[in-house]
Amino acid sequence: MLVGVYVDDLIILGANVNDISHFKQQMKKFNMSDLGLLSYYLGIEVKQNAEGITLSQAAYAVKILESVEMKNCNPCATPMEVRLKLSKKKDEEIVDPTTYRSIIGSLSYLVNTRPDLAYAVGVVNRHGGTCNVPPTHP
Asked: Which residues, including other chains, have CB under 8 Å from residue 8's CB and lie 6 or more apart?
C-alpha cells in the first residue's frame, strides 16, 4: 500500500482493497473524510475506469493560457519549432523576468501530465527571462 500526503490531503493506493479499508478505518480517529475514488488532486483531474487511470490538467492548461492572454491561440502538434534558436537581443522589448519565471513554473507543473512538453519547457527555462523568441512565420 502507498499513501501520498500533501498537507491535509491523502491518496491511498494499493492492490488489496481490504488493506485500504483497514487503513481508512484506522484513520477515522483523526476525523478524516473519505471522498471515495480520487477524481481531482492538486490540480490534476483523475478518471478511473476498467481500462485504467487517466490524468489530465486541461483546466489548468486553460488557466495558464488565459493568464498570458493566449486562450484563443492555434494549437499545434509539435510543442516547439524544430531547431528553434533563442537569443539575447538588446533591441527587443524586455521581458519581465518575474512574470517569465512564473509562466515557466506553471508550465513545469503542467509537464506532470504532458511529458511531451518537457523538452520545450526545459529549453525556455534555461533562459530565465533573458531571451527573445523570433517571430513565427505563417
From this structure: none
Residue in 54, 30, 32 with CA at minimum distance from that of residue 11: 32
CB-CB neighbours of 57 under 10 Å = 19
Cα 37 to Cα 1: distance, rounded to the nearest angstrom? 15
DSSP string spanning 59-120? HHHHHHHHHTT-TTPPP-SSSS-TT---B--TTSPPP-HHHHHHHHHHHHHHTTT-GGGHHH
Q: How far is CA 58 from the centre of its chain?
A: 9
d(CA 40, CA 23): 21
- What is the C-alpha separation between 105 and 127, in angstroms, rounded? 13
pTM across the whole model: 0.72
pLDDT in tens, 5-59: 988 888 999 999 999 999 999 988 888 888 888 999 888 999 999 999 999 999 9
Measured CA to CA, the distance from residue 63 to residue 14 in angstroms comes to 32
